[in-house]
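Quick one, T. Sequence first:
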Amino acid sequence: MPIDVRIDAERRLVVASAHGEMTDEDVFGYQRSVWSRPEVQGFNEIVDMTAVRHIALPHPDRVRDLAELSASMDPSHTSSRMAIVAPDDFAYGLGRMFGLHRKNEELSTKQVGVFRTLEEAMAWLGVAREAAEPD
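Structure tokens:
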């Protein structure tokens, strides 16, 4: 899976860095494998798409399907934030679509923001840039 994941328990933050070609299998796999873990429930999240070179999206409805799955995995007792870093126009548009679908999901407790730079995303999450850098 071209998504590297780091969990920062101290900052209650999941950092996902995607690279190469992204497929819907990659993002659905990431969602299921990471967000099914009880220890990350309620954590904020950053998904950095800066190093993604191509997004292979078989059908636009998959964005809605991912938003629905993601919202169904949210803890009902707490809210959190997800920042998507998408410098590329296509990735940015998909991120915005995902955010809108996520917002409209009844079970969603996560607010989504889409940003062009890592600095903007980290500021919105209220964490220092070092939190998104690899160990």
